[in-house]
Structures are given as structure tokens and as C-alpha cells.
Amino acid sequence: VPRTLVLVKPDGVRRGLAGEILRRVEAKGYALVAVELKHATEELLAQHYAEHQGKPFFAPLVEFMSSGPVLAIVLEGQGVIQGFRSLAGTTDPTTAAPGTIRGDLGRDWGLDVQQNLVHGSDSDESAAREIGLWFPSL
Ligand code: ATP
């Protein structure tokens, strides 16, 4: 059964949205495999966001992602990788559709798309790599 890595980013945890996000995931029917509140190190985040190294938003993104705890979640279910990305909505909350996590709950994004509440793996390969980084024991 496919798995994906979801992160409730520091803005989501800070705003008390972790439970609402878990509720949506469970309502969709995905199974929780692992859930852990973690304060990510810059080293872990640099590996997690390796594909973005060198981009102008990389350093601010790592700083934001280490500004408070994140809720790291492994989900399991048929079609969960694309399914969670559909639940999340587009990267930029200003364009995310109503009914999506970012579309309904994104509100503090301000002037950039950095604070968009959640992360979800974008492929089987990313999911395997990211689950290994965040949950080495799985
Ligand atoms: P995620 O991988 O977090 O689910 P995504 O696949 O929708 O998001 P990516 O393009 O992989 O988006 O970007 C990763 C994260 O980097 C985004 O979720 C956002 O927090 C941040 N980000 C992306 N583009 C920008 C940008 N232009 N300015 C600031 N932050 C950005």
C-alpha cells in the first residue's frame, strides 16, 4: 500500500490547525502509520529540501521550517500521494481551491507562498526518501 510523508508546518502547528488537518486526512480514509511532533534541525531540512538548494527562497524556507515544531505524519492508502496533494491544494494558498487545506485554512501567508500549512511528498521516490529522513526506524 502506498505511503506519503506529510508535514504540518510550523504555521499550522502554531495556529492550532494540526487536529483539523488530521481530521481531514482521516475523513478521506487514509491510515496513520506514524505521527510525531518534531523540531527539525537545519541539517534535516537541508536534506528534505535538497532539490531547492540554490533557489532564493531556500534559506528563508529552512529558517521558517525550523522556527517551531512540525507535526510529521506518515499516511498509508491507495493513491495517497496524489490524494493528499489534492487535499492540500496548490502551493500558493491565494490560488488554492476552496475545500482544500490551503484554500480553506491558509490565511497568514502574507506576501509569499512559504507559509502554506502543509507539505506532502510529490512522488513514490520522494515519499520513500522523505520517510527515511523523518522516520529512520520505519
Ligand atoms: P510541498 O513540497 O511543501 O508540499 P509544493 O510541492 O507545493 O510544496 P515546492 O515547489 O516543492 O512546493 O516548494 C516547497 C515549499 O517551498 C513550498 O511548500 C513553499 O513553502 C516554499 N516555496 C516554494 N516556492 C516558493 C517561493 N517562490 N517563495 C517562497 N517560498 C516558496
TrEMBL record:
Top-level taxon of the source organism: Bacteria
Top-level enzyme category: transferase
Residues the entry annotates as binding ATP: K9, F57, R85, T91, R102, N116
Protein name according to UniProt: Nucleoside diphosphate kinase
Active-site annotation: H119 (pros-phosphohistidine intermediate)
Location of the protein in the cell: Cytoplasm
GO biological process, one term: CTP biosynthetic process
EC number(s) per entry: 2.7.4.6
Keywords linked to the UniProt accession: ATP-binding, Cytoplasm, Kinase, Magnesium, Metal-binding, Nucleotide metabolism, Nucleotide-binding, Phosphoprotein, Transferase
Cellular compartments per GO CC: cytoplasm
Function statement: Major role in the synthesis of nucleoside triphosphates other than ATP. The ATP gamma phosphate is transferred to the NDP beta phosphate via a ping-pong mechanism, using a phosphorylated active-site intermediate.
Family: Belongs to the NDK family.
PROSITE patterns: NDPK_LIKE
Residue intervals of the Nucleoside diphosphate kinase-like domain: 1-138
Lineage of source species: Bacteria, Bacillati, Actinomycetota, Actinomycetes, Micrococcales
Gene Ontology molecular function terms on file: ATP binding; metal ion binding; nucleoside diphosphate kinase activity
Cofactor or coenzyme needed: Mg(2+)
